[in-house]
Structure formats: structure tokens, C-alpha cells
């Protein structure tokens, strides 16, 4: 495996129909194993293997049986550990480079169906109007309920130019939606930007990839070329599922003082215990190349707001957590996904590997994000009338076998009351969704972006009470204007 891949850290969640996330690459080293293996269980395994070979209704290939056994063993650990066969291993590496063949959707499992977490901008899925929260119930007219997410994703993969038909269940629609798509090679640009108002810019990162830091530097330079006296910047990480660890460190370093700690990791083995700093060697893809050295000095102090939501995970949470700890930015939006773990891909043959969780990560102040997420400084819902379906999206804590937060006990919830409350709220939101169109981030209709701009200008911000803190009599409130200057922000660093 190339040296580039050996040090490539990925920290995303979910899986793309054409790209996977959440790994570090490493050649498989010889590990110390326990002196006494469970011989009785190994004997049982051998016996079951023999029974299948001799008694099953039709012959079964040895390699298939052993691969499935490895897959089951690894996937039983947590939602983000998996066995990577030849195809999955190849697609995973391609995905980190920002290109892959597929439909352009990030997916997760919900109630036995494949749930769309987010369509990739300018992909076949995006152009077809697929939306976050849509459930894929059939692929090419074949029901998929009960399939593993890996198997479902494999069915959506294929060669460029080949056709596929998805059947979609959408909460705002009474009947299934049938969508015809054509697979294509997707070259995803992870960073986009624009001046939203004179003096105020919007910078969006849709996923953290190998080219992200270079792309970010170019976009920032272009923004300052348009307006050298930039008054405020909105960094949009909503629905960003994560990606490569160097990307998260580099994006944080663009806004933070030089050489400060950005994130730390801790796990069982010594290699998993590390601190990543805002230094070139922790985010530069090539020796001697530091794309951040060309940035204007003003980027270190320009007033900054970071937008997050339930779809912001891992690398997004690392950036938001670091900027929040150093008080470099105001975090605005809703609670993030809560994936605070790092996975490592060990190559076990020339073209296969295993992806296993090897560490938890922590913000500069030592906060554990796992199963908790980042709580915004200003809780602002997705729309003026409520948070849309963002409230009902699964988070890390909702996933089966999720890794526990090692610093905080998870709160018990009154499940029955919670279920009734959610049903009532969902009915209200379904009725609301039928009257509204899908949100386009960065548009004039983007309510959270408007509130971020209000904050940067010192105008009132319409905040809400977080769902876990609400009582029936509480409602949305307006936060009084607080004028912040560049000098105020410098003092906080």
C-alpha cells in the first residue's frame, strides 16, 4: 500500500452509495494476541464450517464462507467496523480522493430500510430531487428490507452509464416515488463559496477529502480578492458526514493560532494515542507544501460562525469542537451527530481489508464527542417554524451497538413518553413539509444562514430551546443583538 494511504485518517459516519467513510489506513502489522485462545469456540466454528460444507442443500465456496465469517465478526463490534472485500476496499480508497462511481447519496440504516442521510450536490441523486430522510424501499423493483447496509450499497454500485430504479418512501408523500437514475463517475468538489452580502461570505464544506484543505485555501483567497475588508464569514458544515482526519485538522488550522492542539485520540494500542496540532505535518498532503501559508492574515481574526446540524459528523465535529473550545467561532444550528470515534483500515491481502474502531477522539479541552455530539452556542432550528425532519434523523446514540461515551453516562429516556411526543410532532411536521420545498443551503430561504448573518452583524437572532431542554410552555425566542468586534474576538483566542 502506498505511503500516502498509510497515514490517511478518516472519521466520517454512514456509507456512501459509491463512497464509504470513517477510517485510517495502515498496513497490517503483526499484533500481540492472547496466549490462550478460546479453543472450545474455535472447535465449534470448525464443526459448524464442516456441517455447512457437508449438509447444506447446495455446495458453498470455502472463500465465501470464511469471508462472511470475518464480516460477521467485525461488524458485530459497532456500527462503523466492517470487512472490506475487493470492491469495497477499492471504492473506499477512491472515495477519499473525491471521486467514485455511484448515485451520489450518503445512506444509513433505519427500521430495515436504507435511509438517505444526504445527497451529494450535483450528483444523479441530487438532480433527481432525492432528499435527506427519504427511505429506499426497493432497488430495481426488488424489496430491500432486511438487507445489510453493505449489501444494499453493493446493489446501488455499478459501472458508469448503467441504469437503476429506486423506490422511495417520503414522509411528506402518501404514495411511493419511483426514481430512474444513471450511475456516473462523480468528482466531488468538497468546498464551495460565495459572497452572500457585501462584506459577508459563505463557505461550505460538504465532505472532508484529500483535496479539501487545498480547495479551502483557494476559496478563501478568492473571497478576499473580491472583498479585502471581509466583515464576517459563515463556515457551513451542515450534513457534512466527515472524511479524512488531515482535512479536519487543516480546516481548523486555517482559523486557529499556529501550532495549537486541534484534536486528540486515545485507544487501546499505543499508535492510537496521539495529539494533532495546527501544523503542516498534520494536514499537508505533500512534503513542503502548506496551502495555508498563502492565506491572508485577516482569516485568523475575521468574525466567524459555524453552522452544524444532526447530519454534521466526525470531521465536522472535530472542526466545530476545536473552534468552539478556543472561542474562535460561534457555533449555530442544532446538535451534531455525535460520532466521536476513529476507524483504522488494516490491509489483510493485496485488495481486501478490515475497518475497525481503534480510538475515540477529543476536543482540545478534552471533551468526548462520542454519542453526544457538539451542542451549538446558539440553538437555531432549520426553519422559522421548526426544525423540519432534522429532529427525526438518527444520531450516533440511536445506532445499535454504538460505542459509549467514556466521559459521560448516557441519560435514560422515558421511551413511551418520547414515542408519543415524537408521533405528535411528526404529524405536525409532515403537514408542514407538504407546504414547503426542500432547503437549499446558501440560498435566500436558508433560515439558519440568515440567523448566522444577523449574529455577525450584531442583529437579533431567533434561537430556540433545544429539544432535550424544552417544556410544553417554552417556545422560540429572540436573542438580543450583541455587537462583537474583531478586537473582542482576538481577546478570546
From TrEMBL:
Pfam families: CtpB_N-like, PDZ_6, Peptidase_S41. Keywords: Hydrolase, Protease, Serine protease. GO terms for biological process: proteolysis; signal transduction. Gene3D superfamilies: 2-enoyl-CoA Hydratase, Chain A, domain 1, 2.30.42.10, 3.30.750.44. GO terms for cellular component: outer membrane-bounded periplasmic space. GO terms for molecular function: endopeptidase activity; serine-type peptidase activity. CDD domains: cpPDZ_CPP-like, Peptidase_S41_CPP. InterPro entries: ClpP/crotonase-like_dom_sf (IPR029045), CtpA/B_N (IPR055210), PDZ (IPR001478), PDZ_6 (IPR041489), PDZ_sf (IPR036034), Peptidase_S41A (IPR004447), Tail-specific_protease (IPR005151). Residues 469-493 are annotated as: Disordered. Residues 89-171 form the PDZ domain. The keyword Protease applies. NCBIfam families: prc. Belongs to the peptidase S41A family. This is S41 family peptidase. It comes from Undibacterium nitidum.
Amino acid at each position: 500500500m502506498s505511503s500516502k494511504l498509510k497515514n490517511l485518517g478518516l472519521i466520517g459516519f454512514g456509507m456512501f452509495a459509491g463512497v464509504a467513510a470513517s477510517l485510517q489506513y495502515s498496513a497490517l502489522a503483526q499484533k500481540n494476541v492472547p496466549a490462550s485462545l478460546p479453543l472450545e469456540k474455535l472447535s465449534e466454528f470448525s464443526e459448524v464450517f464442516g456441517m455447512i460444507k457437508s449438509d447444506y442443500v447446495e455446495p458453498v465456496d470455502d472463500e465465501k464462507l470464511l469471508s462472511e465469517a470475518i464480516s460477521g465478526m467485525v461488524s458485530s463490534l459497532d456500527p462503523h467496523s466492517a470487512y472490506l472485500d475487493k470492491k469495497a476496499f477499492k471504492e473506499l480508497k477512491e472515495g477519499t480522493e473525491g471521486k467514485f462511481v455511484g448515485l451520489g447519496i450518503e445512506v444509513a440504516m433505519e427500521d430495515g430500510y436504507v435511509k438517505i442521510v444526504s445527497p451529494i450536490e450535483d450528483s444523479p441523486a441530487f438532480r433527481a430531487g432525492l432528499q435527506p430522510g427519504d427511505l429506499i424501499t426497493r432497488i430495481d423493483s426488488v424489496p430491500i428490507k432486511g438487507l445489510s447496509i453493505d449489501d444494499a450499497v453493493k446493489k446501488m454500485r455499478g459501472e458508469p452509464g448503467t441504469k437503476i430504479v429506486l423506490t422511495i418512501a417520503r414522509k411528506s408523500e402518501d404514495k411511493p416515488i419511483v426514481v430512474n437514475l444513471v450511475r456516473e463517475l462523480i468528482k466531488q468538489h468538497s468546498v464551495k463559496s460565495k459572497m452572500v452580502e457585501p462584506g459577508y461570505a459563505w463557505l461550505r464544506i460538504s465532505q472532508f477529502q484529500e483535496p479539501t484543505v487545498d480547495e479551502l485555501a483557494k476559496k478563501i483567497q478568492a473571497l478576499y480578492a473580491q472583498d479585502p475588508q471581509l466583515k464576517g464569514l459563515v463556515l457551513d458544515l451542515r450534513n457534512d458526514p466527515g472524511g479524512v482526519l488531515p482535512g479536519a485538522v487543516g480546516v481548523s488550522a486555517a482559523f486557529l493560532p499556529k501550532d495549537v492542539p486541534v484534536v486528540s485520540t486515545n485507544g487501546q494500542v499505543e499508535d492510537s494515542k496521539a495529539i494533532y496540532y495546527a501544523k503542516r505535518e498534520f494536514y499537508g498532503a505533500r512534503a513542503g507544501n502548506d496551502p495555508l501559508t498563502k492565506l491572508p492574515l485577516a482569516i485568523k481574526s475575521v468574525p466567524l460562525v459555524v453552522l452544524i446540524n444532526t447530519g454534521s459528523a466526525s470531521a465536522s465535529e472535530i472542526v466545530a469542537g476545536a473552534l468552539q473550545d478556543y472561542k474562535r467561532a460561534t457555533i449555530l444550528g442544532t446538535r451534531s451527530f455525535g460520532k466521536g470515534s476513529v476507524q483504522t483500515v488494516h490491509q489483510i491481502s493485496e485488495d481486501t481489508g478490515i475497518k475497525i474502531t481503534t480510538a475515540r477522539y477529543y476536543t482540545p479541552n478534552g471533551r468526548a464527542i462520542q454519542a453526544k455530539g457538539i451542542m451549538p452556542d446558539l440553538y437555531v432550528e432549520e426553519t422559522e417554524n421548526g426544525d423540519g425532519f432534522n429532529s427525526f434523523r438518527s444520531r450516533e446514540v440511536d445506532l445499535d451497538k454504538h460505542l459509549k461515551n467514556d466521559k459521560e453516562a448516557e441519560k435514560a429516556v422515558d421511551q413511551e413518553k418520547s414515542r408519543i411526543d415524537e408521533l405528535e410532532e411528526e404529524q405536525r411536521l409532515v403537514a408542514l413539509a407538504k407546504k414547503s420545498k426542500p432547503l437549499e443551503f446558501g440560498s435566500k430561504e436558508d433560515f439558519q444562514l440568515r440567523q448566522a448573518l444577523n449574529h455577525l452583524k450584531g442583529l437579533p437572532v431567533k434561537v430556540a430551546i433545544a429539544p432535550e431542554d424544552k417544556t410544553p410552555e417554552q417556545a422560540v425566542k429572540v436573542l438580543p443583538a450583541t455587537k462583537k468586534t474583531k478586537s473582542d474576538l482576538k481577546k478570546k483566542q
